[in-house]
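haha ok so turns out i had the wrong file open the whole time. this is the CORRECT one, sorry everyone. sequence first:
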Amino acid sequence: MERAITLLTGVLQSEPDDSDSLNNLIFLRIQRRDFSAAAMDYSRLAALRPQSAEPRIHQGEFHFRAADYISAISAFDMAAHIDPANAQAQSGRCEARAAANRELEVAQQACAEAVRLSNGSSAALFSQGFLYFKQGNVEGALGEFESAMQQDNTNPFAAYGYAIANLRLGRHEAQASELLTAVSSDVPEVAMYGAAGLTR
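then structure:
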């Protein structure tokens, strides 16, 4: 894997617009859980596509997974600047600020905008629940997570948040613990929200 990363990096130095090589490199970064490097790879891709919000969104997601919330804020803000009507970018702006405990009024506005733009999507409701939880409004967070699950019962992050909020409130503890164990095993990525403060 290390050799493949070295070779792909070399290819991209000579052919920086080779998006296939870049995508392959990002895949290997994920396998190695080198999220900071993956964020930098997406930064390179974003430079090649300055009018596209998508690379900036992915850059922000990997900064978030690396617990570099300040860099995540910057990437999501850039994505929203490019495409203000992108609900995913607005959710990212909200979540990164909530994780960093910074500019929470801006986070509230961004989450509300994400909910509006997405017509109340499960992902946007989860983001709002995460913000509420970080603000100490666990009851409000539980309501958002429950709504997110009703919108999409396959959303593992909503299930994770729902389980954590119930445990924090001391409700349905046996079922919540069982759900938390199952979703954490099936989708290990939920742990990034635990690292960001969504904990029992």
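The mean pLDDT is 93.
again sry for the mixup
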